[in-house]
Amino acid sequence: MFSILGFSKKYIGVVMLLAGFLVSALMLTAYTDKKTELYASPDSLILNPFVEPDFPFISTSLDARKLGPHFPEDNISARSLALQLGDSAYACFDTDLLRWSVGWTGKFLPMVLMAQISYKDFFNKNNKVTTVTGSPKIATGLYAGWSEGKPDFIDPREEPEIANEIKWGSMPAEKGRWNGVFVYGEKAVLNYSVGKASVYELPESIRFEDQTVFVRKFQIENAGKELYLNAAEVTNASGSEVKGKIAYVYQGANKDTVTAIAVLGKATLNMQPEVTKNQYMTVRIAPSNKRGEGTILVWKGPANKKSAFEKLCKKKHITLPDFRKGGESHWGQAVITSGELAPDTAAYVTDKLTLPLNNPWKRNVRVADISFYKNGRATAVTFEGDVWMIDGIDKNLKSIRWKRFASGLHEPLSIEVVRDTVYVFGREGIVRLHDLNEDGEADFYENFSNVVTQSPESREWAADMVYAPDGSFYVAKGGTQSNGPGVTSQVTKGFRAGSKHNGTILKISPDGRSYEVIATGLRGPYIGIHPEKGTLTASDQQGNFVPSTPIYLIKKGDYYGVPASAHRKDNPPIAPPLTWIPHRVDRSSISQAWVTGNKMGPLNGDLIHFSFAHPGLFRVLIDSAASIPQGGISFIQADYPAPTSKGAMNPIDGQLYITGFNLWGSSSSGISALMRLRYTGKQMYLPNQFQAAKQGIVLGFDTELDGTGLNVSDFAVKRWNYKRTEEYGSGHFKLDGTSGEETLEVAGAYLSTDRKKILLLVPDMQDVMQMEVAYKIKAADGKNINDRFWFTINNLSQLKSQSDFSKVDFSVLEKKKVQSESKPETELAASAEKGKDIFQKMACAGCHSAGLVTKGMYGPPFQNLYKSERRFEDNSTAIADENYIRESILTPSAKIVKGYNEEMPSFVGILSETDIASVTLYIKSLKK
Questions:
Q1: How far is CA 836 from CA 32, 912, 920, in A?
Q2: Looking at the predicted structure, is the pLDDT value of residue 30 above 80?
């Protein structure tokens, strides 16, 4: 409640890591070195830095618009490789424009992006935009790094949707395309095309005296046309010259600083440095249909060291190594963990697959997604950009073998195995991984597809990717929410401009080279697909323009209500969701998965929805009688020790495997987990079918029910609508538009002849955004079932299969009327105890601490809140008295506490005046 998004300030420490990181924290972890197994206790767990010194790159975004005098001011990239060149020299290669955006010395990039800043400080959401904190030496502006025929200093990408915004995305493929990067030991070999020419580039650095020189070694094939490399730009230069194979551009009134480009001798490429407009430093490469090689040196330093540099330039070009066969292994060791089987206490339980936290590289492991090979081998991707191979997943989970396969990816959240090849979706696009020398590690990180545009906006997630039966991929892009640092302008409340694909679902062609937009107008979509039927689903994140959590059946051309991500001008209608989910039930949803095969019992064939915030899994039912798709959900009770985000079916054991990690606010304190949802064969007590009919509601169950004593008092039915506005989320509203919920009287309750369905006769059934059925019934085996089912009515149908129920008195429907309010006499008097109960039931505890904890919390803590002074974003202040608390509950956007974001829905129509008074009393009781 109240203004949300509390930011972590300090490193949590090993104690928090061990307490919350994983469910099986007391399990022993082993890692193997050749034939020797070394055992490490979890209490010795220490994480190394995010950047590993022996791996050549990380993928990142970079804002280099403020490098200083004589550097181009128009210099920002969304997709770059930050390259470690050795000896404190670094460069960023913009894979969209095929250019060195900047080369620098000193410190590497600050680790401030979301995955980086939360790497050790697990709940820290206070990410920033990456900038160069070292000493910049060379840079280029926003234009292609290469061109054919003549030098070109114009950004070749299409104009943005919004005038004067930054261009994002890759350059036209016919002009140049990023193909990928080879990992060769501690070096990276870049591969891209310029026109029809293939370019391989090995970046390095060397030193002379106290100076750093950037080295770019090239191998070029099929260069049928003259090529131009844009190597550096120097603004406001004081002079330039070209002396043989060296070009100079001078800075300063006395020309005391120089940027130089030189071509080394003994090259098979005909290369010549040039200077254009006393500003742009290029290298002309003569056409050749043969494979050729060459090296250029780029240096910036004092002009009095020119002679020393020229001496260095007499070195000869050294041929590139045979990188195409793969390099030496980085992570030869494997990590062995032992899982934990859950007792068979229910129909579905969660077994824990212990993560390899005690690994030789002291690497964090926050599992984002998992995929399976046909033989049951698994591969998982982590938020820190690593890919792991997982073997030994069997019935007992006693010896699970983890092997690192890839690294350096940019906040990847999805992984798929297609024909035994791994595909990963991150901010760089879809990367296809190749193990060239079969040593168990990826050697070539191929750009399978970068046709989807990406901005550096921190909330424009590369959210989800699924593989379709026709060989294509569907991807979901996060909307550019403005609750974090950004680089584009504000366009509506809660959103920045971002790229043209933010908040969309797109289909990527089987070859990765083209796309089509499927749906738009989403805030934070995650998707699921039926692997055989191709049915595409999605959820969205409650927030501005999204009144509560929806689940959608996706159809091409649909628009889902967020104007900032509409990306169209035809004012389309807003497509209704399959179902809405109340805030208190799931305030933050993620993806979906279909249960395929025949080994999951009652869930076989079902759609499963993943809740990050609850956390846990929901069974999704679809009303097959409705002409407009509508559905409902019920919660699958199990132990979920960490947020649940994504999942995949294991083709061998037929069970659903679940991944998730904490960061954005969840009722779970666990940091990450890999789980198996296992069917035990025990009885299932959830609804397995429903119908919303004009006469009432039908709920079918997996088990036979006890029909004796079935009474209308065993059921409680409510309904309400939401309002879609620019504010964050929505309160609850009656059908006449006034605030509140309507309680519907159940006129009759009937059991079907097969004893597995219940018909509730409910007067005045109408289309409505949200309904809730609470029930207390008994199964035939004596089990008391006390549960709720939530659903949406988009279209009422006639009762299907009336013959399933005998002696139904439909005339009672005419005698009953809807009650507009709950009976006031049932409401308890205000109390701190009731306020504490509301604090838990309304999911307030997922965002606010009852104590002083801020880590993992979206909102400020409650302890000492009452009567404290609150400072707001506009620097005004107020005392947190009864009026302030009431306003914060009903109109949370009225005053946003400084340092927090607007990420709390209104509780109008949800909490009564007595409820609000109870919450106030509870907050008062926390004052010390």
A1: 49, 15, 10
A2: no
CA distance 624 to 633: 14
Indicate the pLDDT class of residue 20, thresholds 50, 70 and 90.
Answer: very low
The tens digit of pLDDT for each residue in 293-302 reads 999 999 999 9
Name which of 480, 456, 664, 459 is nearest 8 in CA terms: 664
Q: How far is CA 347 from its chain centroid?
A: 31
Q: What is the 3-state secondary structure (H, E, C) of 623-680?
A: CCCCCCCCEEEEEECCCCCCCCCEEEECCCCCCEEEEEECCCCCCCCCCEEEEEEEEC
Cα torsion at 344, 346, 348, 350 (round to 10°)? Answer: -50
Q: What is the DSSP letter of 347?
A: S
The CA-CA-CA angle for residues 610, 613, 614, to 5°, reads: 75
Single-letter code of the amino acid located at 158: E
Measuring CA to CA, which residue among 866, 928, 877, 857 is closest to residue 1?
857
Q: Nearest 10 degrees: CA dihedral of 512, 515, 519, 523?
A: 60
Give the integer Cα–Cα distance in Å for 383 and 365.
8
Class of domain 687-822: mainly beta
Beta partners for residue 674, in sequence order: 659
Least confident of 716-720, 785-789, 839-843: 839-843
pLDDT of residue 888: 82
Residue-range domain boundaries for the chain? 14-44+329-395+579-682, 57-325, 687-822, 831-925
Q: Does domain 831-925 have CATH number 3.30.1490.110?
A: no
Give Cβ neighbours of residue 282 (< 8 Å, ≥ 6 apart): 151, 228, 229, 230, 231, 273, 274, 275, 276
Q: Say which residue the tokens 């697990």 belong to.
A: 122
Q: What is the DSSP letter of 183?
A: E
CA–CA separation, 655 and 395 (whole Å) = 11
The three-state DSSP-derived secondary structure of 101-140 is: EEEEECCCCCCCCHHHHCCCCCCCCCCCCCCCCCEEEEEC
**Are 408 and 444 in contact, with CB atoms under 8 Å apart?**
no
